[in-house]
Amino acid sequence: MHRRIIVPGALGAASVLLAIPASAAAPSPGAPGIGDPYYPAYGNGGYDVSHYDLRLTYRPDSDRLEGTATILARTTEDLSRFNLDFLLDVGEVRVNGAKASFTTSGEHELEITPKRPLAKGTPVTVVVRYGGVPSSKEAYGFTGWHRTPDGGVAANEPEAAWWWFPSNDHPLDKATFDVSVQVPDGTQAISNGTLRSKSSRLGWTRWNWRSDKPQATYLATLAVGRFDLTTGTTESGIPVVNAYSVDLGANDGAARASVERTGEVADWLSGYFGPYPYNALGGYVPNTDTGYALETQTRPFYSPRQFANGSNVSVVVHELAHQWYGDLVSVRGWKDIWINEGFARYAQWLWSEHEGEGTARELADYTYASHPADDPFWTVRPGDPGPENQFDIAVYDRGALAVHALREAVGDEDFFAILKGWPAKYAHGNASVADFRRYAEEVSGEPLSALFDTWLFQPSKPEAPAARAASLAKAADTPAQPRSWRKIAATNDVHAH
Ligand SMILES: [Zn+2]
């Protein structure tokens, strides 16, 4: 549920100079990318971050953000130099207390050379003092920062961090976060996790948020503006904090009627996916003109437009499903996006069934039948769609169809055991599509290579019999559109490219 503003198509060719293993000899520069073939310059090599401490001040009238990031990391090789991903202007960098030299390169690289080389396996503290106007910065010709009439919002996938904090920007390097943001009194600063404290002094209010479980950098979010906060507790005891821009206008009621059901939906999802993995929960709806939603950890971002036609709990189901499928277990590489989107979409199908608006099988049948064999829909391979198709509708709908094909193949008992067991098996880590296939084979005791190949990796419409013996083969004509179809389709934003 998200889209890139512009897909940087030429990126693949941009940097081939990836990690050269450090020899036993002299320390060498860390790689400018973590090694993801979809986005070669994203993330960095040579270290692993454990914690980000962000102490910031934001001025809504000028969109100026400034402050200090303190990053705790550990080196994974001998380093003469290392990179962070960042776009704002840097004033000073210190590494283990000593001033370091720095420069910028590429689209979003901050190259840092410490006074002394860093030995492999040692803890490193990096302090970056910075400032800038996020809305004035672009990389690859786009921005992940959304300026609003009363502030700004960082929420985008895969790239959002560059506009507000320096990071190792790839899901492979998760960390805990303390986000402390000072804003003018009467303005709210929303981020992930729990609100530890809030205090006002001399016209400024400081908001202190904490995420005490590992979080991918793209799942960290910041929204500043005039918000109305609501609080509650789920039946299972998780504290809920939601935030709504005070300027949602006619969308206000529908937004609240959807996002206020966050606790109910999270409890319902835990029946399928296991206990909710975090100690905080919620959602926020800023006054952006965007159209998508994003599974920012513990507190998803929802665009007002998601509620333009009335309430839509289905989008809440989607983003909260990601808290297990995407956030708790994150992609190993961005090619593994099916693990996120196929399952979040399938959760919407399960919700439809729960609401009596069409069963998952009816939605699968309709999806299958509504795309003829020559529809380009089938040329997208959800198991490895390529960066240009990472958020194509097929990753969602064909992806959910693949999930349903697995269900039909292994039966409900094994299928729901897989659905619940997977988040626990890779909790707080990363996993690939291949890891998922192996896990499903382990639980079901069945070989699934052919099934996964057919549904996720072939650039063509699977034969109905291979699909499922039962209902698909019988459905020669397009089945009736399930009642939930349009609500679910209203959560698509992928057509906007
Ligand atoms: Zn999604």
Automatic annotation (TrEMBL):
Signal sequence coordinates: 1-24
Location of the Peptidase M1 membrane alanine aminopeptidase domain: 311-455
Entry keyword set: Hydrolase, Metal-binding, Metalloprotease, Protease, Signal, Zinc
InterPro entries assigned to the protein according to its UniProt record, in alphabetical order: Aminopeptidase_N-like_N, Aminopeptidase_N-like_N_sf, Peptidase_M1, Peptidase_M1_aminopeptidases, Peptidase_M1_dom, Peptidase_M4/M1_CTD_sf
Statement: the UniProt record of this protein carries the keyword Metal-binding: yes
Pfam families reported for this sequence: Peptidase_M1, Peptidase_M1_N
Superkingdom of the organism of origin: Bacteria
Enzyme Commission number: 3.4.11.2
Annotated ranges, domain Aminopeptidase N-like N-terminal: 50-219
Cross-referenced SUPFAM superfamilies: Leukotriene A4 hydrolase N-terminal domain (SSF63737), Metalloproteases ('zincins'), catalytic domain (SSF55486)
Region described as Disordered: 472-497
Cofactor(s) required, per the database record: Zn(2+)
Reactions catalysed: Release of an N-terminal amino acid, Xaa-|-Yaa- from a peptide, amide or arylamide. Xaa is preferably Ala, but may be most amino acids including Pro (slow action). When a terminal hydrophobic residue is followed by a prolyl residue, the two may be released as an intact Xaa-Pro dipeptide
Similarity comment: Belongs to the peptidase M1 family.
PANTHER family: AMINOPEPTIDASE N, PROTEASE M1 ZINC METALLOPROTEASE
Protein name: Aminopeptidase N
Organism: Streptomyces vinaceusdrappus
